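Table S7 (text form). Paired inputs.
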Amino acid sequence: MTTLVPLNRIDSQKIEDLLDIGFGKDRHGRTAYRLRQGVSAIPELSFAAVDGDILQGIIQCWPIRLSCLNGKKLPMILLGPVAVHPDYQGHGIGQTLVQHSLDVADSSDITGHDAVMLIGDPEYYNRFFGFSDEETGDWRLPGPVEKRRLLARLTSPRLRDRAGMVEADAPALQKEG
């Protein structure tokens, strides 16, 4: 039976092996990885799907921010990577991991919880979770990205109609006051 556990309970080599299977050993050169440099994943939002000792899938979330043209730095959360071992794909594990992380974020006071961004399949993430590219057209990233795959789920208006550079948010995991 699949259960979700905090990702920090899983051996880091098992996580790396699963990410290599899902995204390839050259994954560290991708734009999303540039957003993760120098920061740690948010432990409260990062989970593993396991069945006993078997790692079926993982999700990680990261602190990022939109550095706006007017100088404001608006915190957000980067959702991903989401990886499911090929033997367990098609069973809803990825969807369960994403929904669980979003539910925890929605009920938390983690900085940026109301603005979750990802790079992914727009049809899938819109259909199941309400992500869209409507507000991300003027956002830049530290590397190439297909604009239609740059998605956000905003539950407050603070990032609407904003332009700027998305970057890692080094003061990770601050709580809103």
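Next pair, protein 2 of 2.
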Amino acid sequence: MDVFAAARRATLLTLLLLGSTCAALAISPRPVEGQGGMVVSEQAIAARVGADILRRGGNAVDAAVAVGYALAVVHPCCGNLGGGGYMVVRLADGTATFIDFREAAPGAATAGMFLDGDGNLVPDASLKGWRAVAVPGSVLGLDTALERFGTMSRTQVMAPAIALAREGYVLSAGDAAILATGTEAFRADPTLAAIFLKDGAALKAGDRLVQSDLASTLSAIAAGGPAAFYRGEIPRRIVAASTAGGGLLSAQDFATYAVRVGEPLRCTYRGYDILTAAPSSAGGTAICEILNILEGYSLSSSGAGAAETVHMMAEAMRQAFIDRNSALIDPAFGANPLERLLSKDYAVAIRARIDLARAAVSTLDDPSSAPHEGTETTHYSVADAAGNTVAVTYSLNAYFGARVMAPGTGVFLNDTMDDFTTKPGNSNAFGLVQGARNAIAPGKRPLSSMSPTIVVREGKPYLVLGSPGGSRIISSVVQTLVNVIDHGMTLQEAVDAPRIHHQWLPDV
């Protein structure tokens, strides 16, 4: 069985097979294929952790959980315990499960919590500091997957991450470059400075990063399960730091947080079955809507990169992002019109409105400049020899989240409150202008573009896809899929190919 998994072009693509290692080159090398399993991650050390779990007889879920914890250590900008995300699991027997471990607003959160007395947004209040932090879900999400589908113990899959945190690891040039982006924030916080700076300066390639507090936190979780993170000393420390810093987190928020387990969102594209993220993520819905629109065009005839192809894709994205930003909501707080948005008839109606000779015009004034495709968030894909596949996208939102850490925990906390509609008509960090349905409310999960996706052909896994990049996750996944299915590219070519993006607003 050949199983392929994609990572973003802008980041290191590390393909680890049982018995071999291959780092992707800048110019589309031959794709790597394997029979014994595969782990794809932005960070090579974390990918090796997952591959070693497979070598030791673990399944794809065991490896995925191990990678998730390892990334919290070796990719601290994005891998995390203090964030959240989504996982799609497809077992070899064809059964598929979606795990929603997205962060939730604290119980004390209010719709206008980031506005001043005049109703204006307080600059950066939803991005930096303890008030920007939502209740994290990653620990419970990873543990839920392991309990339901894993074959190894929590201690076994967490041991590599604990060792990496306690003993440290040597920074690569890429690791050091990412850490350097946080230097000023680290200098402003003695807790962060003690871990991530050396005599007040950024760590360099070749330095060893040791995270003793994080090792202790991971060890507590390995011994006590998620209860150690959601009840007891760890949340007590986090809540105390949050309170001192003007945040809203409470012990009750941690104690009542719950993962949602259900069916992945399903759609089809040219005979392929797509399994992707369901709400509270908006990513899977947007991907399926875009694919439904594109299915009515002959992209293979117009050709990859042709003006006609680019126009059709941009218009499909524009239409899907209108719905993504205005129609969707955390399903615990309202109904989502998925039957309409995902219907082929709806796509036909949208295509009828698209002028193939002229770009449409988005209807609101542009509130911001278009964001560059970023590397915030992280995605990894896993497949084992039996045919089990796992796609995971999880995040702190921005690099290093809210750039806060409770002393003694080693855990970066997210700035996911910025993913809510902090004020209707205003854009978030990724330029998205979202509607009132995504307004802040206690316990609510903000919409997300995270889109872990598994593509099935003739009953067998064909692609395992995902990406970092904020709102550009959606367009990255769509274009990688289209490049393979419509344009006949190898997976490596599909990942390396130039991409476009449109998200309705800003209209550029």
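The longest strand covers residues 84-90.
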